[in-house]
Design a protein that fits this description.
This protein has 450 residues and is an alpha/beta fold. It folds into three domains: 2-135 and 327-364, Nucleotidyltransferase, domain 5; 178-324, Nucleotidyltransferase, domain 5 (2-Layer Sandwich); 372-412 and 420-445, no CATH class. 42% of the residues lie in helices and 17% in strands. It is built from 17 helices and 14 strands. Helix 12 (308-317) links the parallel strand 11 and strand 12 (322-324). Helix 3 (69-83) packs antiparallel against helix 4 (88-100), helix 6 crosses helix 13 and helix 11 packs across helix 12. The chain is globular. The protein starts with a strand and ends in a 5-residue tail after the last helix.
């Protein structure tokens, strides 16, 4: 049985193909389009998945799209009515995109899969996150926590999972979103929303949480169970293309930082404060979920699960014995999650946890790869000089330049799934050198020093 999962039209569009529940191909559209965070329909990613499996669309049994577009459209309309007359320009920009394209995803899928005659289903956004978190884990049963900006209506959800069942029991709903709270600070500190949150996490380590109390007293009401209520007077994302209001700027005494503006200590301190609020809220959520489920395992999904500092706090200070987070917990990963929902929950197939090594391989190294022959043909076509080495000589030739302070681009096997370099497409450098981080950021990554 082949099942195809698709995510697109928000950010990080992707496609994933499962065979009898095993992930055999998964890749983001940006890997082919070369457009960072490409959100368009993943034509190229789908075609690569089919080519990798050696099948045509008529062999696919069923397809899952990662959320419910009609429910999401309902939320958008409801929101614009609620904030009117504010939000007119946002309405005129967003709604035509939905009416002309995003509501007709089923037609897009049928056009892309000529010959496909199977069923197309639409699991809810946070169920796709939950399925991806659980079915990539080695657990037979687990508590579930998903946190992101927003799906259809939910922004955070929790529940439990076992075998062929994932149950969402509670959620927090739009506009009260921990993910959008963090994205508001991402915007305010000069980074791009849905792209720069990891930069905010890095920036926060250089500051002190001096504004923690100010944030807790004015911006966010947090209950003991981790549920939140945002003070929407300070946020503009319900009606504008920016995330924060003028009242937000007045609270901190500065205007939103521009990209080229120098990062000052106040920016580091605001970032540290926002990060601490995020960590404290998530810890409250985690403790509440443990009290309710009494399970020893926790699986976490959603884009906020990419916050590694917060994840460490969950592991070190949380009550769960085991914590699992998939390598791509955000929306791209939900292409796999939707397909897993389709196979395990919709079609009621049992989960197999007998081979943890296979689980890791299937959910990390599932992207494109190229043979030595293919690489040589490409290099020859571009008149690029190269040398070939056996494995032993290759390791020696690689280790010495690294020891000498050089930076090496390392390629092997299949591309990793998700935004983290995990050994197959990696930049290697000597961590013993005090200035190496600055060299990488300045010369390779072309990003901020932190």
């Amino acid at each position: 049985m082949y099942n195809l999962g698709i995510s697109c039209y928000y950010h990080d569009s992707a496609a994933a193909l499962l065979k009898d529940g095993h992930v055999i191909a998964a890749v983001e559209e940006e890997r082919f389009s070369r457009k960072k965070f490409d959100d368009d329909f993943p034509h190229k990613a789908i075609q690569w998945c089919l080519d990798e499996a050696g099948i045509t669309p008529d062999k696919i049994d069923s397809v899952a799209f990662y959320d419910k577009p009609v429910l999401k459209f309902e939320r958008l309309l409801d929101n614009y009515i609620a904030v009117a007359p504010r939000g007119l320009y946002s309405f005129l920009d967003v709604i035509p995109k939905w009416i002309h394209k995003r509501l007709w995803i089923k037609n897009d899928i049928k056009k892309a899969l000529k010959g496909f005659k199977g069923e197309i289903i639409f699991p809810e956004h946070h169920l796709s996150h939950a399925a991806h978190a659980f079915y990539t884990s080695p657990f037979e049963e687990s508590a579930i926590l998903t946190i992101d900006g927003v799906g259809e209506w939910s922004t955070t959800s929790y529940g439990y999972a076992s075998n062929d069942s994932v149950k969402i029991t509670n959620d927090i709903r739009w506009p009260h979103s921990l993910g959008l709270f963090y994205s508001a600070f991402t915007y305010f500190l000069g980074f791009k929303v849905n792209e720069g949150e990891y930069k905010l996490m890095g920036l926060s380590s250089y500051g002190k949480p001096k504004y923690y109390d100010l944030i807790m007293e004015n911006l966010i009401d947090v209950k003991n169970d981790g549920s939140i209520h945002l003070n929407m007077e300070y946020f503009a994302f319900t009606y504008d293309k920016v995330m924060t209001s003028k009242k937000f700027s007045k609270l901190f005494g500065i205007e939103p930082k521009t990209r080229d503006e120098k990062t000052l200590q106040i920016h580091f301190d605001i970032g540290a404060s926002a990060q601490k609020v995020l960590e404290d809220v998530i810890l409250k959520m985690v403790h509440h979920i443990y009290d309710k489920t009494k399970m020893k395992n926790l699986c976490i999904g959603g884009g906020v699960a990419l916050n590694g500092v917060s994840n460490y706090k969950i592991l070190s200070e949380g009550p769960f014995e085991n914590v699992h987070i998939p390598p791509s917990p955000g929306d791209a990963g939900s292409a796999v999650g939707a397909a897993q929902y389709l196979y395990y929950i919709y079609h009621k197939n049992p989960k197999d946890t007998s081979d943890n090594t296979q689980l890791i391989q299937e959910n990390v190294y599932v992207g494109p790869s190229y043979t030595d022959k293919e690489i040589k043909v490409f290099l020859d076509s571009k008149n690029v000089s190269y040398k070939s080495f056996d494995d032993t000589e290759l390791l020696q030739k690689t280790a010495q330049p690294i020891a000498d302070g050089n930076v090496v681009g390392w390629y092997q096997g299949k591309m990793e799934w998700g935004p983290r370099a995990l050994g197959n497409r990696s930049i290697l450098a000597d961590p013993r050198r005090a200035n190496m981080k600055d060299i990488l950021n300045a010369k390779i990554k072309h990003r901020e020093s932190f």
